[in-house]
Automatic annotation (TrEMBL):
Name this protein carries in UniProt: GTPase Der
Highest taxon of source: Bacteria
Record: residues binding GTP 1: 9-16, 56-60, 118-121
Family affiliation: Belongs to the TRAFAC class TrmE-Era-EngA-EngB-Septin-like GTPase superfamily. EngA (Der) GTPase family.
Subunit note: Associates with the 50S ribosomal subunit.
All copies of domain EngA-type G, residue ranges: 3-162
Gene name for this UniProt entry: der
Function: GTPase that plays an essential role in the late steps of ribosome biogenesis.
Amino acid sequence: PLPILAVVGRPNVGKSTLVNRIIGRREAVVEDKPGVTRDRVSYEATWNGRRFKLVDTGGWELDVLGIDAMVAAQAELGIESADAVLFVVDATVGATDTDEALIKLIRRAGKPTVLCANKVDGQSTEAEAAYLWSLGLGEPYPVSALHGRGSGDLLDAVMAAL
Ligand code: GDP
Ligand code: MG
């Protein structure tokens, strides 16, 4: 079986955009408003000749729950079955209480984790992402899922974790 990477993060941080970037196709549904997306959950990807499975934890529909409970439940499901976690934050917003709650879940699961500081579209914002070291998840990888910036370095780190 292929190694599994769970993509975890709050709604609207750019998980689906990042999934599309990594798989090189537009299969994940990108939504302008935060909320429930109707993405497929599982995708196959290849990097440097190695195949792996990507699980978009925002892809489940659990909207009977409140938004925070929903995010947590989705993340928990995804993390449980994953070999490694790609945790995505919106670097233009910073870490919110929901992010902190998700980090607790990830810590409890004890899976290798790579931190993606998304929406770093330009050089000027790259240095700003450095404050995310404070999350305690190691090096924040500045990425623009929208434009592709930084995604190679991110994937190298992901493959080292998988
Ligand atoms: P998800 O809810 O985490 O899956 O987030 P989406 O992938 O649906 O993206 C939410 C919004 O953020 C959309 O409007 C995207 O176009 C936007 N977005 C995603 N990645 C980036 C990025 O790298 N830069 C910018 N500026 N916007 C982004
Ligand atoms: Mg999504």
